[in-house]
Amino acid sequence: MDRLVTTLLFSSFLLLSLFSTTSYAQTQNCSAFAFRNNQNFATCNPLPLLNSVLHWTYHSDNHTVDLAYRHGGVTDSDWVAWGLNINGGRMAGAQCLVAFKNSSGQIQAYTAPIADYFTQLRQGFLSFNVPRIEAEFLNNEYIIFASLELPSGRTSFNQVWQNGQVSGQALQAHSQSGDNMRSFGSVDFANGRLGNDGGGSITSRQRKRNVHGVLNAVSWGVLMPMGAVFARYLKVFKSANPAWFYLHVACQTSAYAVGVAGWGTGLKLGSDSVGIKFTTHRNIGITLFCLGTLQVFALLLRPKPDHKYRLYWNIYHHAIGYAVISLSITNVFEGFDALNGQKNWKRAYIGVIIAIGAIAVLLEAFTWFIVIKRKKTDSNKNLQNGTNGVNGYGNGTHQQA
């Protein structure tokens, strides 16, 4: 009982800690925050991702903005950036403010225009003037202070924000999954509103990624393991023959067909997402497609049960099948990382896999019980038949006696 109470208290503490972390930028870190230079801002808004907050004061008389961008939960071996994209929606074309700790131990802040997805955040002039920029690092938080002369005639812009690691003087690429792929939105400096385009609404590309994820999770991640369960456990029951075979073939061919559709959508997403790569996920996907295709051809070339090559075919078929299932489950989880934090889907899939695994364990024990019991029954019958003289030799001995 004491152990149960301790476990519940510890779990509650972890949940509270997690909630505190996720709400970091949404409560006390906004209007109540006190800057060390006693600077005040008229407006502040927590950004939906990456523990970031944007403070600003808009001066309508000269169309300028004084702002402070805060990015928490990082170390001094990281870099952070915030920027406006005047004509685009995401990273390419963004006009950024960057801060990091250089090799001499100083916090360096500068401007960096981003021309494409292969940027190294080199220093350069922006498309609008930035009369002032400076930065500080304190308590695992970067703060970039800047003054911007906004492009004329506009107060609403798309914004992006990001963080990554620093190696020496080189700023490394940011993470290609999770919140780092959704950290974009919009800001209106005049009315103080943010648009959660990156953290809230679903874009056309995101819908395609969701479709890709569903197709592959259902096919490779669910139907394939189910087909293996049918083949391994149902054939033990004599009454299930040949129904188990047709169920197995139906599951595997359906999984392959849907999986090919999911693979095709993945190729399309890759071609449409220049500069965004999920190398491990892509390589496993290509491997799965090749192995799955081999399994389909193996079904067409399956020898008869009494053929001399049937044993080798069975070894090949089982080895490739289990390899496909292992890679499929692994790649589904790789895909969840690429789907930008779809935690509910991930939890649902974990539940499905646990259920299939539990069923497999129970059926494994049950089928072994049946096989052992059947062997004992056959052994007893053979022994009984021998004792009663049914085998012919017994009859002769009895007659001689």
Automatic annotation (TrEMBL):
It holds the Pfam family DUF568. Binds 2 heme b groups non-covalently. Residues 1-25 form the signal peptide. Residues 170-372 form the Cytochrome b561 domain. Its main location: membrane. The keyword Protein transport does not apply. Keywords: Electron transport, Iron, Membrane, Metal-binding, Signal, Transmembrane, Transmembrane helix, Transport. Residues 50-164 form the DOMON domain. The keyword Transmembrane applies. It comes from the Eukaryota. Its cofactor is heme b. This is Cytochrome b561 and DOMON domain-containing protein. The lineage of its organism: Eukaryota, Viridiplantae, Streptophyta, Embryophyta, Tracheophyta.
